[in-house]
Amino acid sequence: MPRKTRCTPVVTAGVLTGLFAVSQPTIAATISDPIGDFIASYGGPHDSDLDVTSVSAIYDPTHATFRLGATLAGAINPASNGFYVFGVDRGAGANPFAVIGVGGVTFDGVVVVTEAGTARAVVDGVTTPLTAFSLSGNTVSVDVPGSLLPSTGLTPDHYLINLWPRTGDFVGNAAISDFAPNNSDFAVSTPEPTSIALLVTGLVAAGVTRRRRGRVMDQTVVG
Q1: Which among 24, 180, 191, 219 has most CB atoms closer than 10 A?
Q2: Is residue 141 part of a domain?
């Protein structure tokens, strides 16, 4: 049976190449994660697009915008019901994953990108759709206005990040396939203003396209 195809949110190829040429040297806080390190409590399929190999986070103080990104061990499957949860600790992060031995991961807000092609921020009980995101091959990235992530104690350039993919086939902590980093958060990086200005300008010029699928994901991000 042929695989279903869809229109994923992507930046045009020419501009994407230019963006990465500018942005690559600025992403100092790129965290590597081992391949195949699915956590013991995970109950879902060991699909390569649920296995993080690297995660990054940059903060642009000029435009007060966060860019969160990740690389997976395999191509993202648009027919799957998995999603990527970037946990953000703004200063008052809790650690609900201590019950599965991952007490070092703290957060008090999340940014979610689904394999189906939607994105949202969930902060202080408020869900806000996001439009500036990309799913391409085995990579995912999303831009989040800083206004959607107000401080709870830390300054934005010191926010802490962790990424955990989830499968929609399970609920609770059994749905979480991986943590990146494994049992800690990492700090966002702040690039030079000139470099990040070029990056953001290029993304806005390129634009993104997306198509909503007629499926609502009712899974919670924690359990």
Answers
A1: 180
A2: yes
DSSP H or E run through 22: helix 13-23
Domain containing 27 — which CATH number? 2.60.40
Radius of gyration from C-alpha coordinates of the chain: 16
pLDDT digit string (tens) for 70-123? 999 999 999 999 999 999 999 999 999 999 999 999 999 999 999 999 999 999
How far apart are the C-alpha atoms of 93 and 186, rounded to whole Å?
A: 13
Residue 22 predicted with pLDDT over 50 = no
Instruction: Extract the tokens encoding 142.
Output: 């999303």
Give the residue carrying structure tokens 């600025």.
26
pLDDT for 64 beyond 50? yes
Q: How far is C-alpha 44 from the geometric centre of its chain's CA atoms?
A: 20
Whether 115 is covered by a domain: the verdict is yes
Q: Is 111 helix (H, G, I), strand (E, B) or coil?
A: strand
Which domain covers residue 194, as residue numbers?
13-206
Q: Is residue 216 part of a domain?
A: no
